[in-house]
Amino acid sequence: MAELLRALVLVCTLSPSPASSSSELLARQLLEQMPDVDASVVRVVDHNITAGVELDMGSGDEWPAIRSQLVDADILVLATPTWMGQPSSVCQRVLERLDAELSETDAQGRPLTFGKVAVAVVVGNEDGAHHISGIIYQCLNDVGFTVPAQGVTYWNGEAMHGIDYQDLDDVPEKTAGTTKTAATNAIHLARLLKDNYPAP
Length: 200
Description:
Elements: E1 5-11, H1 22-32, E2 37-43, H2 63-72, E3 75-83, E4 86-87, H3 89-98, E5 117-124, H4 129-142, E6 152-156, H5 173-196
Parallel strand pairs: 1-2, 1-3, 3-5, 5-6
Antiparallel strand pairs: 3-4
Helix pairs in contact: 1-5
């Protein structure tokens, strides 16, 4: 029997718990399409993630505990809202902290993130999902993650309107289909990598 895949979802909303979050909602809908994956969801803003590009920025920094979950995961889901056409500042901080992974390599010189899959989740009431997913893809690929085909699900509402994804009565058909595709492709690729490139 194949070993269970593990996923870590980093929700980069600006809203601390217990406030509702469209980013987390769509991320959890993605997880619903991964029924056989052991998943953990972390709302990053609930933790003290110190600014910097080191693995551990010292006293009070809670990134090392989150990173430990990331190292154990096969799939990373990075979920962010759209603000001013950009990923959230919380998402940017996560990407900056991941920069430290460039120095963390195995005996073959591979990043410890090698063999892990990453997908993106983007929401917002303005355009920007393609731009944001491009930023996320490049950053995560740079530090060793593999991004599957169609490795993003997103929803953008009409520009200059205040409707959030979580306010919709139903999930739009196109978003639901994209979510399922991203989940399916992530699982397929993660399984291939796990079977062919065992963890260092």
